[in-house]
């Protein structure tokens, strides 16, 4: 745990990436697996994760992210896109995966499936979209922690115009919405922010024991 906390103190929201350094395939696969293994409500994972390497595409996204240079300078750009709607097919697909993975009949999961459908499909469209958007933050957390272990920098961003990113990446036609973006790569030695002391609330101010 001491190593984990050390890495958490090492990480920061990188302001300037070294555009000459690229993440290895091995490390990228580790990050992908960390995202894949993230916790998700009911285990449904109602989102897609886009890993954008194409420099021209990233240049188109940059103005939609307030011109932030991390978009184009980082090794890769990750876009978390939540589903804007949830259907019975999504839940049925998950139950099929559970049955196949655990080698149990799908009929044994019918009660759980009905429970999920009753609680999820009855929600309003806005509520569904808001809920699936929150799920992407859980996946981002795993990305941040795994990247810190590998000494890979990540800049989690809400500073962008989702509607513009959706248009650039064709998300509207896919029933998706860009909820988070995260450039990943290696900090530039010119980024003075890496030397700033980490500012967080004290334990006394943050935690309340009842």
TrEMBL record:
A molecular function (GO) term: oxidoreductase activity
Domain Nitroreductase: 10-186
Protein name: NAD(P)H-dependent oxidoreductase
Swiss-Prot/TrEMBL cofactor(s): FMN
PANTHER family: NAD(P)H NITROREDUCTASE YDGI-RELATED, NITROREDUCTASE
Domain of life: Bacteria
Family: Belongs to the nitroreductase family.
Pfam family, one: Nitroreductase
Keywords: Flavoprotein, FMN, NADP, Oxidoreductase
Stretch forming the signal peptide: none
